[in-house]
Design a protein that fits this description.
The complex is a heterodimer of chains A (460) and B (489). By secondary structure, chain A is an alpha/beta fold. Chain A has 3 domains: 49 residues, no CATH class; 256 residues, Type I PLP-dependent aspartate aminotransferase-like (Major domain) (Aspartate Aminotransferase, domain 2); 101 residues, Aspartate Aminotransferase, domain 1 (Alpha-Beta Complex), CATH 3.90.1150. Chain A is built from 13 helices and 13 strands. Chain A has a 7-stranded mixed beta sheet with strand order 1-7-6-5-4-2-3, with helices on both faces. Chain A has a 4-stranded antiparallel beta sheet with strand order 10-11-13-12, with helices on one face. In chain A, helix 5 runs parallel beside helix 11 and helix 6 crosses helix 7. With 489 residues, chain B is of the alpha/beta class. Chain B has 3 domains: 57 residues, no CATH class; 257 residues, Aspartate Aminotransferase, domain 2 (3-Layer(aba) Sandwich), CATH 3.40.640; 123 residues, Aspartate Aminotransferase, domain 1 (Alpha-Beta Complex). In chain B, 35% of the residues lie in helices and 10% in strands. Chain B has a 7-stranded mixed beta sheet, with helices on both faces. In chain B, strand 2, helix 6 and strand 3 form a beta-alpha-beta unit. The longest helix of chain B is centred in the C-terminal third of the chain and has 37 residues. Chain B is globular. The chains are: A alpha/beta (460), B alpha/beta (489). At the A-B interface, helix 1, helix 2, helix 3, helix 4 and helix 5 of A face helix 1, helix 2, helix 3, helix 4 and helix 5 of B.
């Protein structure tokens, strides 16, 4: 590797191994051995100590410098109007400060509740926030991301309805379809992608609806849930949690399961992960839920010295574990083990710092800024906003020139355009770019976009 | 009352709000207003607490202090490899060019991150001896699912899937193994381990047949023991036309010393939060890289990063099982794993496994007079004792021993796993602990064993020094309360 300075390894002692040569000698002596290699003599000799082509050790300063160079090779400082599942959000500084505390970050799954109350109580707060947002009764402690949580919701629907197919309603994120297909391949479940809720039949375990949909539109969840229920299917809604600050709670509109992507309210998007899959359900599905669940529990005995009649102190524990792989093994509801605990804690801190007004105002600010940008673009000659109906933060822009031409012209102006969706079947997506403006989009970036579109010209 | 003296658990953030209080100032839109969508699409409000920023800081600060962590002290949780989490790696993952990279950006804006991920694929391919690598899965169990589905696809392509519907799993395996096989649509057959804690070759022979899809095996196994017949096992599974799936959870024991690929494994998943020191976060985020043979490469989950003439792009393998997640995977975790590997370097690999195995064997030697050792053999990175002696002689269960260990200022080991060991105490010190801290750990266990004989009630009453005592877990599952509700006025 050309960029690695040839520092001899001997110059860099491994900073993560505390044993000294003297320690090792003493320990080996106690074991009756002379070298560490003796500990591995059971391993097949022919394959021991292979040559491994990994670079030699780097000193910390060299490591940081090298990776800072790599990071700088990414272009992330241009005005960007890419959304399509990953959104730049205004996250309070205290979120990273608190979730980054090493007591949260460097602990394991809370198997010992007495010394894991921080993780457990934060998870209980998280479950409560997700129930409030979704309008549903129960939540787990979070899953990998929105798409995989949606796939797990489909599998839950398959279990409870005993039907072997699921229906995904367009427009839905194409990668969500891909992830659901992957899980469905495991479960030998059929995946139908439908354009109308009326296509759902008594073969379908559920109808999956994205809110707002992949092209930004706000769905009427009630009407879609009614259609699903008429066919005896469940309704799964994949929701943007910031949009839920403004939009009707899916659970109140008939959804049986709600999933969503929490990453963008928890921390940076980091090329898409780690993420956070919200997962909430009606209470009747509690014992069919995948993932971990935290419950409230009283302390068994009063602490030493407490008055005899003192109320039991309250704590939190992992509960309803008979669903899980480490107990139920091949009969578990899922193989889920390590999830996204720290991201869930960060998400919760953002939500509780925003509070009810802050969440509502952020959602409205997002909506207003996006609509203002769309209005200014629509006022330019040759450009049309083709989004049909109500939308939240993403809108379709069509010029008289092909979408690809406008996109590359914007790139030449130093602007990251919205996603080119012109290959999609929806008429409104024809030759259109999907622009995203959120509450965190700087006004100057919108100005630059409008200016650039004006210079490029919408007319052919 | 302050947060240091009150019953923190009884009052959630939800209970601490004051109407009108704000934690952050959100700008109001002062431009031309757009009417909101129709009222039937909107909600009134969301019930969330109204807290000042300082209140949020103090509350979550108080919660964090009710956690034990690696940064607090020794965390010898067997099977979890709770080693030190380097802080420089957190800094690297937060570098702006990485943190703000959009997953759908054009490749010309992503060369830095794609190059790092490509190099990481290469390192993991070298470390496992299985060169076809995908970083797409979000956690170990997710990687397992990817690996088993790759096997499913391979069987389908060779026309064998209808017939091969059984997956064999040792009875000492992690629960995720059988759960994963079931999620992938296979039936699971458990294999009883032999008296030495290893796969029983006769049991394997009896179970193998032309209806077997795969054998899932953890190496070294979950008892912390080397599988002495591993080469024969791999050979027999392959001769039966099935695949060998490797659970890489215990890679820390053989890092730099033995490669799954050299032993003939077909596909393995790794756990960066175990082997490569990424923070576990109290239950994630993890990542689940999958490493496979060239035969299985076409089925890898998407995306995979590829390089041509110094230009990096993502691609979808020809016959990929599909996507595991919406985007690239746990990139923030993978960056930390990359930084870890670059810091310890080539020589650090075998040094890591060497010290991890030395520490575990030293601990075994210090403790073996005081606890039953169900498999009296040299161990690898962890040692599994049994609390049977204390149970029989003192009426003390492993559960009580674990709780008393808390009062020694330590995190307890993994208990009651593997399931085949009665009253199991599974201890994994890792290479990140010093000789003295191994001695203190052993001393704590010995003192607890002595106390069990002298004063068993002290163990039943433990822990006494934790933020809270034992909790009524039966009540928690019998009458589940799993969310906040407003208190009656």
């Amino acid at each position: 590797m050309a960029d690695v300075p040839p520092i001899p390894h001997q110059a860099i002692p491994n900073p993560y191994i505390p044993n000294t040569d003297a320690d090792r000698a003493l320990m080996l002596d106690r074991l009756g051995l002379t070298s560490i290699d003796d500990l591995f003599e059971e391993l097949p000799a022919a394959h021991r100590s292979p040559a491994i082509d990994v670079p030699i050790a780097l000193a910390e300063a060299d490591l940081v410098r090298m990776l800072a160079e790599r990071a700088a090779e990414n272009v992330t400082n241009r005005p960007s109007f890419l959304g399509a599942g990953a959104y730049r959000r205004a996250i309070p500084t205290i979120t990273a400060h608190l979730a980054g505390r090493s007591e949260f970050a460097t602990s394991y799954t809370p198997y010992q509740p007495e010394i894991s109350q921080g993780t457990l109580q934060a998870a209980f707060e998280y479950q409560s926030v997700v129930c409030e947002l979704s309008g549903l009764d129960v939540s787990n402690t979070g899953m990998y991301d929105a798409a995989s949580a949606t796939a797990e919701a489909c599998l839950l629907a398959v279990r409870v309805t005993r039907r072997r197919a699921v229906a995904l309603l367009e427009p839905i994120h194409p990668n969500t379809i891909d992830v659901v297909r992957m899980y469905a391949y495991g479960g030998d479940v059929r995946v139908d992608v439908v354009r109308e809720a009326s296509e759902i039949t008594d073969e379908h375990a559920c109808l999956v609806v994205q809110q707002p949909d992949f092209l930004g539109g706000i769905a009427d969840v009630q009407a879609l849930a009614d259609a699903a229920h008429e066919a005896g299917a469940l309704c799964v809604v994949v929701a943007d949690p910031l949009a839920l600050g403004l939009l009707r709670a899916p659970g109140d509109a008939g959804a049986d399961l709600v999933t969503g992507e929490g990453r963008d309210l928890a921390g940076p998007m980091t090329f898409g992960g780690p993420s956070l899959g919200l997962f909430a359900a009606r209470e009747t599905f509690l014992r069919q839920m995948p993932g971990r669940i935290v419950g409230r529990a009283p302390e068994l005995h009063p602490p030493a010295g407490a008055p005899h009649d003192a109320p039991a102190r309250i704590g939190y524990v992992l509960t309803l574990q008979a669903r899980e792989q480490f107990i139920r093994r091949e009969r578990a509801t899922s193989n889920f083990s390590t999830g996204q605990s720290l991201i869930a804690t960060a998400f919760t801190i953002t939500m509780q710092t925003l509070g009810p007004q802050g969440l509502r105002e952020s959602a409205e600010l997002c909506y207003q800024k996006a609509h203002d940008a769309a209005r200014r673009i629509a006022a330019l000659p040759g450009y049309t906003i083709t989004s049909p109906g109500a939308w939240f933060q993403e809108f379709l822009v069509r010029g008289e020139k092909p979408a690809a031409v406008i996109a590359s012209a914007l790139a030449e102006h130093g602007i990251v355009p919205g996603l080119d969706v012109s290959d999609r079947a929806e008429p409104e997506a024809h030759e259109a770019l999907l622009f995203c403006v959120t509450e965190a989009t700087p006004a100057a970036h919108v100005d630059a976009l409008v200016q650039a579109l004006s210079e490029i010209g919408g007319r052919s | 009352m302050t947060l240091t003296t009150e019953d923190v658990g009884a009052r959630l953030a939800f209970d601490r709000g004051t109407p009108g209080r704000r934690g952050v100032g959100v700008p109001r839109w002062t431009g031309e207003p757009t009417p909101l969508p129709d009222a039937h699409l909107l909600r009134e409000s969301v019930r969330l607490p109204e807290l000042s920023q300082n209140e949020v800081i103090r509350y979550y600060g108080a919660l964090s202090r009710r956690n034990y962590s690696i940064d607090t002290g020794t965390y010898p949780l067997g099977s979890c490899t709770m080693k030190y989490n380097p802080k420089v790696n957190d800094l690297i993952a937060s570098l702006e060019g990485f943190a703000h990279a959009h997953p759908l950006a054009q490749p010309e804006h992503l060369q830095g991150i794609l190059r790092v991920l490509h190099e990481l694929q290469g390192y993991l391919g070298e470390i496992t001896g299985l060169a076809a690598v995908s970083l797409a899965a979000a956690a170990g169990a997710h990687g397992e699912l990817a690996g088993i589905l790759m096997i499913k696809r391979a069987l389908e392509r060779r026309g064998d899937l209808a017939q091969r519907r059984r997956v064999l799993v040792p009875d000492s395996a992690h629960g995720t193994n059988p759960a994963t096989a079931a999620m992938a649509g296979f039936t699971v057959q458990e294999l009883k381990s032999g008296p030495d804690g290893c796969v029983d070759l006769d049991a394997l022979e009896a179970a193998l047949g032309d209806d077997v899809a795969a054998f899932m095996i953890t190496l070294p196994n979950t008892l912390g023991l080397w599988e002495r017949d591993i080469q024969r096992i791999v050979q027999r599974v392959h001769e039966a036309g099935a695949y060998v799936y490797g659970d890489g959870a215990n890679l820390n024991a053989i890092l730099g010393r033995m490669r799954f690929g050299d032993l003939g494994f077909d596909v393995v998943h790794l756990n960066p939060h175990k082997t490569f020191g990424t923070p576990h976060g109290g239950g994630g985020p993890g990542a689940g890289p999958v490493c496979a043979t060239p035969e299985l490469a076409p089925f890898l989950p998407a995306p995979v990063v590829t390089e041509a003439d110094g230009w990096y792009t993502q691609f979808r393998p020809d016959d990929s099982i599909g996507r595991m997640q919406q985007f690239h995977g746990s990139v923030g975790v993978l960056l930390r794993a990359y930084a870890y590997i670059r810091t310890i370097g080539r020589e650090g690999l075998a040094e890591t496994s060497g010290n991890a195995v030395l520490n575990a064997n030293y601990l075994r030697t210090l403790m073996e007079a005081h606890f039953d050792l169900p498999y009296d053999r040299r161990v690898m990175h962890e040692v599994v004792f049994s609390g049977n002696r204390q149970k029989r002689q003192n009426g003390i269960r492993t559960y009580d021993i674990a709780k008393r260990i808390i009062d020694h200022g330590l995190h307890p080991p993994t208990v009651y796993f593997p399931l085949i060991v009665e009253e199991a105490l599974m201890i994994e010190p890792t290479e990140a602990e010093s000789r003295e801290s191994i001695e203190l750990l052993a001393q704590a266990f010995i003192e607890v064993a002595e106390e069990a004989a002298r004063d068993p009630d002290a163990l039943h009453a433990a822990p006494q020094t934790a933020p809270i005592g034992r909790m009524d877990e039966t009540e928690a599952s019998r009458h589940p309360v799993i969310r906040w509700q407003p208190r009656p006025e």
